Structure formats: C-alpha cells, structure tokens
Task: structure prediction
Amino acid sequence: MSGKIAQIERFKAALFVLILHRTFLRTLHAQHLMPRREDPIRAYSLHPILVAPPHESVDLLALSFLLSSKEGELLNKLGVGEAQYRSVVASVEQRNQLHLAFQARLQAAAATGTSEGTLDDIRGIAGTMLCRQLEDLTGELYRTTEHAIGFNRDVYVAAVSSFKRMFPKSSMFGVEDLPLSKSDAA
Result:
C-alpha cells in the first residue's frame, strides 16, 4: 500500500473510532442520563449502566503524519477527545461500583429489618462517605458526558474538514447522524 493510501486508511479509521465513541456517548446520554436528569435523587435512582463501551481507540501514532502537515493541531484535538471519552468510560465504571456497594448496604440493612423510607434514612444506611461519593460522581458523569459529546462532534467536524483538505480526491464515507455544524446538532 502506498504511503498516501495508508494515510487515507489510517485517517478513515480515526474517523470511524470517533463515530463509535459518539454513538456510545449519545446512547449513554439519551437512554440513561437524560431520563433522570431532573430527578433530585438521581445519584441513587440511576442504577448501574450496563452499556458496553467500544474499546477501539484513535491510533495517534498512526496519524503522526499530520504533524508534518498544516493539520498538526488536529492530532492534539484527537488526543484530547480520546482522553475525554476514556474519562467518561472510567466514570461509568467507577460509578457502577459505587452504586453496587450502595445497593449491597441497602440489602444488608433490609435483611436486618431496617427500613429505607426517606432519603435521610437511605443516606444513614449507606453511610455519608459512600453517599457523597455517589452524588459527586453522578454529577460529574453528567457534566463529562455532555462535554465529551460536544467535543467529539467538534473534533469530528475538524477531522472531516482536514481530511477533505488533505485528500480532496479521496471518497469520504458519510454519516448522516453526525451533523457538521453545531446548529444542526442535537
């Protein structure tokens, strides 16, 4: 495979990974986070999230050819986007573990006949530290997910533009679900 063809394929692979990440982030947001967004006890009512995130990652070293072009800043943006995606995935995993510990404490209390009536009762059973961690991490998950979705979109738009400038004669796969302007984004 010639050098230019290899660059095109590596670039398209990065675009595909961005699409995979965006699909996961949007699914997480729409199906799990948004339905409980305004719930005052969302930290407790949002159960562990069992959507498996894609493990594919943007191969930044394979895109190092961008450094010798006018598109070098895109490599940094791709790296930041990858880091934000990984942060969301790590937050989901950590929050899942905290929520499972929370559920275990409630179940243990129920087995001894302790009631979990009010939010204060629940906090008392689960413990102040666990509740604070669960509340803080849930809030952080909402913030980081929303930010990662927007940043992923911005990086995708920048990457498509760079691809078209660098490889104007190469065909571009299109994804209708990813608007290329912020005003079209949901």
Observations:
- The chain has a mean pLDDT of 89.
- Residues 3-172 form one domain.
- The radius of gyration is 21 Å.
- The chain is about 65% helix and 0% strand.
